[in-house]
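User: I've been trying to design a sequence by hand for this structure and keep getting stuck. Would you show me what you'd pick, starting by listing the structure so we're on the same page?

Assistant: Good idea, let's start from the same input. This is the structure you sent:
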């Protein structure tokens, strides 16, 4: 059998040697704990032979092979069941009546110890000189093991602990062998990974059960030693806690129970957060059995604040009702916190994080989603029975109430009950009003105790990414800030409101804008630089916030914008073509206000640039945008002194406006009082002579170039009427330029060619008609009136 196993694993393995050994050991290990001594002896004997082959295989391999890197060697000999194997062999050493079994187990431990040393070398964990010297010392020790193992317990520094181990495991069976024939677990422990040490602890826990054939005292002492100074990974804590939760009722021996209690407290102190999550996963309802484990974990005084922080973190992770594992855990966290608040011993530690806990519980309440009236009534009025199944929202309400009592804020708890604030905080339509009422009640009943809550909200909003908590936190902060009145130092509120004016959440932006307006009441013009900056943001909602604020500034402080009129007008022109209809609408309304503001003469260039975009948007099928474009066009024509265009825009003569735009405007006569020169003192008309023909042609060329650029942008509009208008205007522009600028005619044809694949059949047909007409007109003199009338009629239809 031994030769067959050796050949199977080391000579002709079908997989890696480590995988082959794992499969064989997994078959053999269960037999080492059976009641039959013969079966145990045979299983341990096979393990001994295999470990001997493994140690020999490692010894024969060179330390630095040129053919294979150390990492490959490690992967080849990786042994996932090493922790279980060492644990079984240590427990088998306690079968003192079975000398052969004990000696085989001890010998196997020796071989495994040598394998562990070689593995440490392969893993490259001992490259530093000091660690390398330690490895060499351990390796030399393993070679002279039969004469020098009395210091193997925990190294040279652990001699004082050897006696306690011998007494714990039972001196009778230990002293029946030479002192040099046994390796206690600490010598393995320092070379073990966290998961392997966990496997060893789990095996010791299994040996502590009443039904186990192993020596219970040896198993309990083994577990006690392994958990000292153990820094487990979170997954390892979960495995140990789950195993203790399942095994505790199967263990009745007092020494074993004492070991579990002390080990549990050590694990909680080593990793409080992992311990908290493990307990929550074991029993989300925090039943009686799991609460006993909670008490064991909380018996470590240093662990209590960290475990409360872990509960707080869990409550901050997701909102109530989320159907995920995390969503279940945050309900379990509320349940555990409620249970913890019932014990006065933990009150001081809980009060250290009262502001954080109270804020997150209120945020959970307002984020719970819509509830039916009967559900709210059942939550707030029905008697609370902790032992009965309880909804998550009801548990949060009861936890918040208990938290107020723990923090000695009985007046606030009573006022919230009296004013039915618990119910008002849960309604989708009432939670904002509920927060306003809560802020007023808090400031009335416990203003001093509210300051830490306000500061905590301030820190959250300033320095943290709140995700789903952002809107409730912002609303709670805004209500507290509004109710307590403004202070001389409003630096923090300013930073918060300026930060969240750019938030992705519309409600946060609304609250931030309200906060800034309240903060700058009576001096809104100070926000003008910020509004100009927000107007450049790529997000449409932020542009809207900026436009609303600018409208207020223009209405209340028109003189303050005189210095930025041109800059603001240019930014608004870029908003005319936004995809968001409300941005187009509001920007045109604000542009019309600027054209009537003090200093509007500075906007002549921007007014001229706006004519064509406003004309095209007059044809939109969105009434608000079309009306705003018409109004702005009227004001632009008025500012430019273009009376004909102003009249046509007022009458909404769309195609007459287009024809008017294509022609260069004639300078209007300027009226000046010439009373001393005229009879009767009437005003005289001073006519400005028209510019030379060359200047008119230059201006016509510049206008045509700008019109062409603006019109081409609208050929890709999502609205069919806008694309239709752009095509018709290009046709009209081509008619005017056919004998003046051949290059521009070529650009117009290229733009129309690109629009031939339009998704709307009517637009495609219009593009083809326009291209045909333009191609015909290029060969016909412009003096042919009949053809000119035919073109005009076709274009208008």
């Amino acid at each position: 059998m031994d030769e067959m196993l050796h050949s199977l694993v080391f000579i002709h393995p079908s997989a890696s040697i480590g995988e082959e050994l794992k499969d064989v050991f997994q078959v053999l290990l269960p037999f080492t704990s059976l009641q039959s001594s013969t079966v145990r002896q045979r299983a341990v004997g096979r393990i001994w032979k295999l470990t001997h082959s493994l140690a020999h295989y490692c010894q024969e391999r060179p330390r630095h092979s040129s053919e294979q890197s150390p990492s490959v060697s490690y992967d080849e000999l990786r042994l996932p069941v090493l922790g279980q194997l060492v644990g079984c062999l240590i427990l088998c050493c306690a079968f003192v009546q079975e000398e052969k079994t004990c000696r085989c187990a001890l010998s196997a431990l020796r071989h495994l110890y040598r394998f562990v040393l070689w593995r440490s070398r392969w893993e490259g964990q001992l490259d530093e000189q000091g660690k390398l010297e330690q490895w060499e010392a351990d390796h030399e020790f393993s070679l002279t093991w039969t004469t020098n193992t009395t210091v193997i317990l925990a190294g040279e520094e652990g001699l004082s602990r050897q006696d306690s181990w011998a007494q714990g495991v039972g001196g009778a069976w230990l002293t029946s062998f030479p002192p040099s024939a046994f390796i206690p677990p600490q010598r393995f422990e320092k070379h073990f990974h966290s998961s392997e040490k966990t496997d060893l602890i789990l095996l010791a826990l299994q040996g502590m059960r009443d039904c186990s054939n192993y020596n219970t005292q040896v198993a309990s002492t083994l577990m006690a030693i392994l958990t000292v100074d153990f820094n487990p990974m979170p997954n390892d804590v979960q495995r140990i806690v789950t195993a203790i939760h399942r095994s505790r009722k199967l263990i009745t021996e007092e020494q074993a129970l004492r070991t579990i209690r002390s080990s549990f407290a050590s694990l909680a102190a080593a990793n409080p957060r992992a311990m908290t999550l493990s307990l929550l996963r074991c029993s989300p309802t925090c039943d009686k059995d799991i609460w006993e484990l909670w008490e064991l974990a909380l018996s470590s005084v240093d662990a209590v604040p960290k475990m409360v922080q872990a509960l707080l973190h869990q409550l901050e992770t997701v909102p109530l009702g989320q159907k995920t594992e995390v969503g279940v855990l945050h309900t379990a966290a509320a349940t555990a916190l409620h249970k913890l608040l019932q014990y006065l011993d933990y009150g001081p530690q809980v009060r250290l994080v009262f502001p954080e806990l109270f804020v997150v519980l209120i945020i959970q309440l307002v984020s719970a989603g819509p509830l039916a009236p009967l559900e709210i009534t059942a939550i707030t009025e029905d008697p609370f029975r902790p032992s009965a199944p309880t909804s998550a929202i009801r548990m949060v309400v009861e936890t918040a109430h208990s938290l107020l009592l723990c923090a000695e804020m009985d007046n606030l708890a009573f006022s919230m009950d009296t004013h039915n604030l618990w119910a008002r905080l849960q309604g989708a339509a009432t939670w904002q009003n509920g927060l306003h009422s809560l802020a007023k009640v808090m400031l009335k009943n416990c203003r001093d105790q509210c300051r830490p809550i306000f500061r905590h909200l301030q820190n959250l909003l300033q320095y943290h990414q709140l995700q789903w908590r952002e809107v409730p936190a912002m609303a709670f902060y805004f209500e507290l800030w509004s109710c307590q009145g403004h202070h001389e130092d409003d630096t923090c509120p300013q930073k918060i409101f300026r930060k969240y004016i750019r938030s992705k959440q519309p409600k946060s932006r609304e609250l931030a804008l309200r906060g800034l307006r309240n903060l700058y009441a009576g001096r809104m013009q100070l926000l003008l630089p910020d509004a100009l900056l927000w107007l450049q943001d790529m997000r449409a909602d932020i542009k809207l916030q900026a436009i609303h604020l600018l409208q207020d500034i223009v209405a209340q402080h028109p003189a303050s914008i005189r210095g930025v009129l041109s800059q603001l007008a240019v930014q608004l022109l870029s908003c005319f073509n936004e995809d968001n209809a409300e941005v187009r609408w509001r920007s045109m309304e604000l542009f019309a206000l600027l054209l009537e503001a003090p200093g509007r003469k500075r906007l002549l260039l921007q007014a001229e640039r706006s004519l064509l975009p406003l004309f095209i948007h007059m044809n939109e099928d969105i009434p608000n945008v079309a009306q705003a474009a018409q109004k702005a066009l009227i004001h632009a024509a008025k500012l430019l002194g273009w009376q004909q265009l102003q009249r046509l825009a007022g009458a909404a003569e769309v195609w007459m406006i287009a024809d008017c735009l294509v022609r260069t405007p004639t300078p209007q006569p300027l009226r000046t009082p010439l009373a001393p020169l005229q009879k009767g003192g009437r005003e005289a008309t001073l006519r400005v002579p028209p510019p030379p023909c060359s200047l008119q042609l230059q201006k016509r060329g510049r206008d045509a170039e700008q019109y062409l650029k603006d019109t081409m942008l609208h050929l890709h509009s999502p609205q069919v009427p806008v694309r239709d208008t752009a095509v018709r205007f290009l046709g009209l522009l081509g008619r005017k330029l056919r004998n003046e600028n051949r290059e521009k005619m070529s650009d117009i044809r290229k733009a129309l060619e690109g629009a031939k694949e339009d998704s709307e059949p009517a637009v495609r047909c219009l593009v083809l008609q326009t291209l045909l007409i333009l191609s015909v007109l290029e060969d016909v003199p412009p003096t042919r009136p009949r053809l000119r009338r035919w073109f005009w009629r076709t274009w208008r239809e």
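That's my pick for every position. To get oriented when you compare it with your attempt: Confidence is low (pLDDT under 50) at residues 62-72, 126-132, 143-183, 666-699. Residues 165 and 221 are 7 Å apart (CA to CA).
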